[in-house]
Design a protein that fits this description.
Low-confidence stretches: 6-30
CATH architecture: Up-down Bundle
CATH class: Mainly Alpha
Oligomer: single chain
Order of helices and strands: HHEHHEEHHEHHEEHH
Number of helices: 10
Radius of gyration: 38 Å
Helix content: 55-70%
Structural class: alpha+beta
Largest sheet: 4 strands, antiparallel
Shape: elongated
Strand content: 5-15%
Strand order of the largest sheet: 2-3-5-6
Distance between the termini: 61 Å
CATH topology: Outer membrane efflux proteins (OEP)
CATH superfamily: Outer membrane efflux proteins (OEP)
């Protein structure tokens, strides 16, 4: 009976609430910089290469706007040389010179189409930055919640291993005193190997999750960091039709693609307007021995053999392709909103199953096994099995909360921000 009480005391020491944190791991984390979810999001938006790339794209389109609004530069040609009249009676000898100024004049329709195309490209780059913010935010949240779950998984696996190790020690003592058959020690040893394998898996997943979060944050977290926070609370009132309408009306990816379609349309208009050639106004001053003249004229390239059919066809094809991509993107967003909404609903129902009785039932089964063992009705292996089921239930509960948080982050990305 004393041995039974010792065993139950050990079980009580290691069977803890799922919010329990391993003291050694906690002490290690306290020595590292700890980040909340909001701090992770700030760092990700600041240091992510995705955001840097989109800022560069915005700068690129700003340059195209400036170039589209520029006027053609004039061309100045000058020539000079010694010249004289070959009549010995005159003896005239001067520096002959010619100055030519040529100014291209662009057709207004061509210039306006080019400027509108550049403006659409700039607006698309702005929408692209908003899209990148939505994407980086979702990726950072997903990586944060994955690491949060990996930490809980590793803690539960570590606790389970310590519990099984204690059980193996006690069973070995009982076998040596002939109180238990040897096969109980064999079964307990198998459980120990399983627990050790689960811990190795959990530790590997933890390392991978930490590296992934650091990558999403642009390597701004360093090698030693900790996170603090909870999984997302269950949100009520989410409506699929409202979310779908919001995504179709305001998602930055659709707005970016709309601007790309507009840019292609204006580029097509520019190519059509370019069939009318530019006119260059020419002014020339000429001075030579015995003659001085001021000449004005125009230069015009006649589109006799080629009227930019190739450029127009290419621009038309680009416009049609971008419209098709816009339709494809809309369909993908509709599918993503529906998928992640259903995943949110499914995970929410799973959480409710755990909270409404499954956790309590698993704990009650463990309590009954402990009580039965204390009264000599159940074996120690039955207590181990009940403890393993309870730990697995805690792990699946954490998985459900992590799945809900991940699905909610993906839904927010698909909608472009929850209303």
């Amino acid at each position: 009976m004393i041995l039974h009480r010792v065993i139950l005391l050990l079980i009580a020491c290691v069977l803890v609430d799922p919010r329990y944190f391993d003291e050694t791991a906690l002490a290690s984390e306290l020595r590292a910089t700890s980040y909340s979810l909001s701090e992770i999001l700030v760092l990700a938006l600041k240091h992510s290469p995705v955001m840097t790339g989109m800022a560069s794209a915005l700068e690129e389109n700003q340059g195209r706007q400036i170039a589209a609004g520029a006027y053609p530069n004039p061309t100045v040609i000058g020539a000079a040389g010694r010249g004289s009249i070959r009549d010995p009676r005159t003896g005239v000898s001067i520096v002959e010179r010619t100055v030519t100024v040529e100014q291209p004049l662009e057709w207004p329709g061509k210039r306006a189409a080019r400027q509108r195309a550049a403006d659409a490209g700039f607006s698309g780059a702005l929408a692209g930055i908003e899209e990148a913010k939505v994407s980086v935010t979702a990726e950072a949240k997903a990586a944060f919640f994955q690491l949060l779950f990996a930490q809980q998984d590793e803690q539960l696996a570590n606790e389970n291993l310590r519990t099984v190790e204690d059980f193996v020690t006690l069973i070995r003592a009982r076998v040596e005193t002939k109180e238990s058959p040897k096969f109980e020690l064999i079964k307990a040893t198998v459980e120990l190997q399983k627990a050790d394998k689960d811990l190795a898996r959990a530790e590997n997943a933890l390392v991978v999750s930490r590296a992934n979060l650091n990558k999403v944050a642009g390597k701004a977290l360093g090698d030693q960091f900790a996170i603090q926070g909870e999984f997302e609370a269950v949100k009520s009132g989410l409506d699929l039709h409202v979310l779908m309408d919001h995504a179709m009306a305001r998602h930055p990816a659709l707005r970016r693609q709309d601007k790309a379609v507009d840019q292609a349309q204006f580029s097509l208009e520019h190519e059509r307007a370019a069939r009318i050639p530019n006119v260059s106004v020419i002014g020339q001053y000429h001075r030579e021995a015995g003659d001085e003249s001021v000449i004005a004229g125009i230069s015009l390239q006649l589109p006799v053999w080629y009227q930019r059919q190739g450029e127009i066809s290419a621009a038309r094809g680009t416009h049609h392709r971008l419209m098709a991509e816009r339709t494809r993107l809309q369909h993908e967003l509709e599918q993503a909103v529906t998928q992640y909404f259903q995943e949110v609903q499914t995970a929410q129902r799973q959480i409710q199953v755990f909270e409404r009785g499954l956790l309590y039932q698993a704990k009650e089964a463990l309590d009954i096994a402990q009580f039965s063992f204390q009264n000599g009705v159940a074996s120690l292996l039955e207590v181990i099995d009940a403890q393993r089921v309870y730990r697995q239930t805690l792990l699946e509960f954490a998985q459900s909360k992590a799945a809900y948080s991940l699905a909610l982050a993906r839904l927010e990305q698909a909608v472009g921000g929850l209303p």
